[in-house]
Design goal:
The protein is α+β, with helices and mostly antiparallel strands and 385 residues long. The chain contains eleven helices and twelve strands. Bound molecules: adenosine-5'-diphosphate. InterPro entries: GAF (IPR003018), GAF-like_dom_sf (IPR029016), HATPase_C_sf (IPR036890), HATPase_dom (IPR003594), His_kinase_dom (IPR005467), HisK_dim/P_dom (IPR003661), HisK_dim/P_sf (IPR036097), Sensor_HK_Regulatory (IPR050736).
Length: 385
């Protein structure tokens, strides 16, 4: 069981789900009837409760409501608390009385210890009196330590996401200001520009657009990971999304001498989802196809509704992706050796974002590609019903 949990320790799974799973598995392997975890902090008291069943959640809440019980004592003392028979233990009269009514007889509690602080406690509940033997007590403390490791890991991930979200957000404000002043310069409001000055301003425009895109992508990635952005869904016509994305890319397509074919059929292709997220899918795939195709090449985007599914495919005759690297395509910050060799700029976040969005809409994405032989990204999304 420990190795099973060790494997999931580094995943992005929400902590609530992990703790629920942990307490249920503890009930499977220990001689107890229920188990619960309360996360306690001096300011928010408690801030999270998990239980193997409803009774465990009730016992956890009861102790924190009363401010009394083995869980509260283990938290305050940072020591394990053993109560083999609540009826003959006078330390928790209020809790014992209420627990007795529900048929709870024995409680064994283990602190969630971390260096200098205690995060809460793991409670094991039993409906029959009697001690837990030494080995079970030691096992339970180890499991409490595993829960602590999860919590610390989740806390570190949350801090990191919040940090990235704050930095990206703070980046956006000066970027908007820079864009505003560039526009004034281009409009000639600071005096006429010489051709050389225009060239410099163009370089500033390009690079500030890159920075803005990076900040947007970072925000999207942290928002998706933390599930913070659970926004409203609506019916979205993907055909309109594709056509609008194509229009936005018109300038670069012409400048690079590329051919862009958009074939969306004649009818709307409607899926139910988050408009901004679905736009990010189409834009990221089209931008990549353009970016990784040499001047004079072609990019083709087709969209069709086929038996309940929206099928979007974006193909190009560009650089392709070496086969050995294709398994890492949807990993955060992945960039192919070809992209690096050709010094094509990017962050390696776009496809991670695309993949998360497609999956969160109940769809999937596949890629076929050949080194220096072009790529096709195919996305399937369920049509709105
Ligand atoms: P970025 O484009 O910012 O590098 P992405 O996550 O969008 O990040 O893409 C990750 C990597 O996948 C790219 O760096 C590139 O190596 C490869 N890739 C994505 N799309 C294509 C494409 N259409 N053709 C060739 N390589 C691609």
């Amino acid at each position: 069981m420990l190795s099973e949990f060790a494997r999931t320790l580094v995943t992005d799974f929400p902590i609530e789900g992990i703790l629920d799973h942990l307490v249920r598995r503890i009930v499977d392997i220990m001689p107890i009837d229920a188990a619960g975890v309360s996360l306690i902090s001096p300011t928010t008291y408690p801030h999270l409760v998990a239980g193997s069943d409803e009774s465990a959640v009730r016992y956890e809440n009861l102790q924190t409501e009363l401010g009394e019980g083995p869980c509260v004592l283990a938290y305050a003392s940072n020591e394990a608390v053993s109560v083999p028979d609540l009826t003959s233990d006078d330390r928790f009269p209020g809790f014992a009385e209420r627990a007795h009514v529900e048929g709870l007889v024995a409680v064994f509690t283990f602190p969630l210890r971390s260096d200098d602080r205690c995060l809460g406690a793991l409670d094991l509940y039993r409906t029959k009196p009697g001690e837990l033997d030494e080995q079970d007590m030691a096992t339970a403390q180890t499991l409490a330590d595993v829960a602590t490791a999860y919590l610390l890991n989740a806390e570190a991930r949350r801090t990191k996401s919040e940090f990235v979200a704050t930095v990206s957000h703070e980046l956006r404000t000066p970027m908007t200001c820079i864009a505003g002043f560039i526009e004034l310069l281009q409009d000639g409001q600071g005096g006429a520009l010489t051709p050389r000055q225009e060239m410099f301003v163009e370089a500033i425009v390009r690079n500030s657009a890159r920075l803005t895109a990076l900040a947007d992508n970072l925000l999207l990635v942290t928002g998706l990971a933390s599930n913070a952005a659970r926004r409203g869904h609506s019916d979205v016509d993907l055909a309109a999304v594709v056509l609008a994305a194509g229009r936005d890319l018109d300038r670069v397509v012409v400048a690079r001498g590329l051919e862009l074919f958009l074939d969306v059929g004649g009818d709307p292709v409607v899926v139910h989802g988050d408009t901004a997220h679905l736009e990010a899918v189409v834009t990221n795939l089209l931008t990549n196809a353009i970016k990784f195709t040499e001047d004079g090449g072609w990019v083709r985007c087709t969209l069709r509704a086929v038996s309940g599914t929206a099928r979007l495919s974006v193909s190009d005759n560009g650089l392709g992706i070496p086969e050995a690297e294709q398994g890492d395509l949807f990993t955060r910050f992945f960039r192919s050796s070809t992209a690096r060799e050709h010094a094509i700029q990017g962050t390696g976040l776009g496809l991670t974002i695309v993949d998360s969005i497609v999956r969160s809409h109940g769809g999937d994405i596949a890629v076929t590609s050949k080194h220096l032989g072009g790529s096709t990204f195919s996305v399937c999304l369920p049509l709105a019903t």
